[in-house]
From TrEMBL:
CDD domains documented for this protein: ttLC_FACS_AlkK_like
Family per similarity comment: Belongs to the ATP-dependent AMP-binding enzyme family.
Ranges where the AMP-binding enzyme C-terminal domain occurs: 446-521
Keywords, comma-separated and alphabetical: Ligase
Gene Ontology terms for molecular function: ligase activity, forming carbon-sulfur bonds
A Pfam family recorded for this sequence: AMP-binding
Keyword Ligase included in the entry's annotation: yes
Gene3D superfamilies reported in the protein's UniProt record: 3.30.300.30, N-terminal domain of ligase-like
Name used for this protein in its record: AMP-dependent synthetase and ligase
Family matches, as InterPro entries: AMP-bd_C, AMP-bd_C_sf, AMP-binding_CS, AMP-dep_synth/lig_dom, ANL_N_sf, ATP-dep_AMP-bd_enzyme
UniProt domain AMP-dependent synthetase/ligase: residue ranges: 32-398
């Protein structure tokens, strides 16, 4: 029997229409050198229509052509987030922090036709633009001298000139909910970056999940500081979820250093934020050093890499801010799971849930594949590679690349860990970062979490390095806090009370800072390379 229900497509034009009328008074604040500039959702809605007219009438965008952004988090980027998919085209967010040859590869692979660029990023785009084979138009947002772009021979426009005088409504076309709305490439820690293509439907359903109480719990009352870049995993879906829930947005633009973030939090009275752990570690150091406070900021979702429990504790105890740990990846839109403890749990028990990567929602099914590929139970004990499926999980990469990452309709995440019967995920590692010592696996994440809880340690990463006897052994790379001292012997002694003896690292090195990837994660590949090249001063105990 067929249902008798309507099949209204789920999609971005619906979110836009809804937010710009029902939540017309909610706001988007963008940080500038002179404080915040603010627009209402109604204004953003009107400018979104103007942008769509400009893209269609002046730049000739038709059908599913790709419109790329090379931008920070700001109001205009949000306008592109809504205009491009709503007019039927595909938004492609370029990661400005990738190596030039990777950015060029991605722009050509996606066949971008237009690039919107922030004025402040012109010099960065100028380095790669000549290699963008399919791009015809560059639109400069805000101030900035476009001269460096001219050599590439593209047509150059100014965003505000294009929008000026355009109608503030647009007759958004009918769309098919499973059609492409936006695309984003994974950073590609191995091989070339892979394209993930989101549909209108996946974004709509994902936004509902993000806003839910079990996830980010967003409402019209919230002021959401979106630090996670809009060029990385769609800023964790926060922009779309904010318009769906009426939450106001605070966009930091290029002002991402800890002092500027703290200023933005206080100026905009942000009560919720999202960013990777390394950003929060910087903010914590800044607060501790200056005595500044962030009284309005009650909650922050933190993910992208494992959140050290010591960081969660420090924010909670010293600044009254609750860190909510979450896991996801570009391929999962990215919300996979969020660690809200079960109702009724308190104290140590609640804490034991909060430090996990989180609980899967109804929309994400999860299972673990053991070393031989067979499925192991979700009993909180058995370890395996996490596989997920659901309506906002990728079923393939753009152009069918890397098909082995998918099997029987499940995405193989490359993450290794356990799942409890009540759906909480604990990751011990990425498959490629697991340390394989004498047939046993050592969790680099666990060692890092312990090290980062030591008072003298600012940052620590642990990687597997070749060992003639054990195949691999852990190398601990430690960054000490300013003015603090600790020897490898002391740190090893401290760890010996926390982990089994056979897991204790023999090799130690001290760094000025841990190298980071384009999205602020510890770059373990680089640490392994530096070790192999003999560039590190290593103490062997
Ligand atoms: P990449 O890091 O490859 O650029 P993503 O940003 O999509 O791409 O990263 C997804 C990966 O980040 C996950 O597969 C996982 O390894 C890691 N990750 C994300 N959240 C967490 C978390 N809370 N704890 C541990 N690892 C995480």
């Amino acid at each position: 029997m067929r249902s008798t229900m309507q099949e209204t497509p789920l999609g971005i034009p619906t979110l836009l229409r809804f937010a710009s009328t029902v939540y017309s008074g909610s706001q988007v604040h963008t940080v500038t050198a002179d404080g915040l500039r603010t627009a209402s959702f109604a204004e953003v809605g009107a400018r979104t229509a103007q942008l769509a007219h400009a893209l269609h009438d002046d730049l000739g965008i038709r059908g599913d052509q790709r419109v790329a952004t090379f931008m920070w988090n700001n109001q205009e980027h949000l306008e592109a987030y809504f205009a491009v998919p709503s007019m039927g085209a595909v938004l492609h967010t370029l990661n400005i922090r990738l190596y030039p040859d990777q950015v060029t590869y991605i722009a050509n692979h996606a066949e971008d036709k237009v690039v919107l660029v922030d004025g402040s990023l012109i010099p960065l785009l100028a380095r790669v633009l000549p290699g963008f084979e399919t791009v015809e138009h560059v639109v400069v947002v805000g101030a900035g001298d476009p001269a460096p772009l001219e050599a590439a021979g593209k047509q150059i426009h100014r965003y505000e000139d294009l929008l000026a005088g355009k109608p503030t409504t647009y007759d958004w076309p009918e769309f098919v909910e499973t059609d492409a709305a936006a695309m984003c490439y994974t950073s590609g820690t191995t091989g070339n970056p892979k394209g993930v293509v989101y549909s209108h439907r996946s974004i709509y359903l994902h936004s509902m999940q993000v806003a839910m109480p079990q996830s980010f719990q967003l409402t019209e009352a919230n002021q959401v500081l979106t630090i996670v870049p809009m060029f990385h995993a769609m800023a964790w879906g926060i922009p779309y979820a904010a318009l769906m829930s009426g939450a106001s947005l605070v966009m930091p633009d290029r002002f991402l250093q800890a002092p500027a973030l703290v200023r933005a939090i206080n100026e905009a009275k942000a009560d919720f934020a999202g960013a990777v752990p390394t950003i929060w570690a910087d903010v914590l150091n800044h607060l501790d050093a200056t005595g500044e406070k962030i009284p309005t900021l009650q909650r922050a979702v933190v993910g992208g890499s494992a959140v050290p429990p010591a960081l969660m504790q420090a924010f909670e105890e010293r600044y009254g801010m609750r860190i909510i740990h979450a896991w996801g990846m570009t391929e999962t839109s990215p919300l996979g799971c969020v660690s809200q403890p079960p109702a009724g749990t308190e104290g140590e028990l609640a804490w034991s849930y909060r430090v996990t990567q989180g609980r899967f929602p109804a929309g994400v099914q999860a299972r673990l594949a053991g070393p031989d590929g067979s499925i192991v139970p979700n009993d909180g004990e058995a370890v395996g590679e996490l596989e997920v499926r659901g309506p906002w999980i990728a079923a393939s990469y753009y152009r069918g690349e890397d098909p082995e990452r998918f099997r029987d309709g499940w995405l193989r995440t490359g993450d290794v860990g356990t799942i409890t019967p009540d759906g909480f995920l604990t990751l011990t590692d990425r498959e490629k970062d697991v340390i394989k010592s004498g047939g046993e696996w050592i969790s680099s994440v666990e060692l890092e979490n312990h090290l980062m809880a030591h008072p003298a340690v600012a940052e620590a990463t642990v990687v597997g390095v070749p060992d003639p006897r054990w195949q691999e052994r852990p190398l601990a790379a430690v960054v000490l806090r300013e003015g603090a001292g600790a020897t490898p012997e002391e740190l090893r002694e401290y760890l010996s009370g926390l982990i089994p003896k056979w897991q204790l690292p023999e090799r130690w090195t001290f760094l000025a800072s841990v190298p980071k990837t384009s999205v602020g994660k510890f770059d373990k590949k680089e640490v392994r390379r530096a070790y192999a090249a003999g560039e590190l001063e290593v103490t062997v105990l």
